[in-house]
Amino acid sequence: MSELTDQETAETAAVDKDPTATVESTESTESTDVEESQDDSEVEESGTETTSENTDKPAAKEAPADLEKEGEVAADFLENLLDICDLDGDIDVDIDGDRAAVAIVDSEEGRVPRRLVGDNAKVLDALQELTRLAVQAATGHRSRLMLDVAGHRAGRRAELVEVAKVAIDSVKESGERAALDPMTAFERKVVHDEVLAAGLSSESEGVEPRRHVVVLPA
Hints:
The protein is 53% helix and 15% strand. By secondary structure, the protein is α+β, with helices and mostly antiparallel strands. The radius of gyration is 24 Å and the shape is elongated.
């Protein structure tokens, strides 16, 4: 047998002296990996959700042609899904800033079933994720497309803008921070954008499903 090198001998002695050292090191590395993975998930989910928390570099904007391709793939997927489920609805495709925007709207044959939205838009959110996965499978790229059903998100966006304006006026008048009710990532993003446009800052606090926006004084 070959002799151990000086370094190997020292490492062996260290392990013999403290057998938990290697285990602790491994556990520390695994813990770090999990935390980093969770952070990445939060950034991906919220996009440019907050004005104060989003310190990472913004995602590179996709070319209009790429977004149009995402919209086409999403439309085909949703049309097939509606056919399989024997549900009415037409598909509208657009580009909203740096992401594709797809909507299932009422058709001449009938209305889109509101159950595709669900309580607190949970069905809509799940359908959006399925559509994003279908686009990713076809294009090889992660999708950030937004899906709307029967104008639910559009209507909710208008409501949230009014909620944000009330909070902004309150903060400017009182000089104190204002915490809003829990919201989804999409809803928080709408509020953050409105607060930023008003010249104030905001942040998200708490964990799902109680995560909410806090509007901060200037």
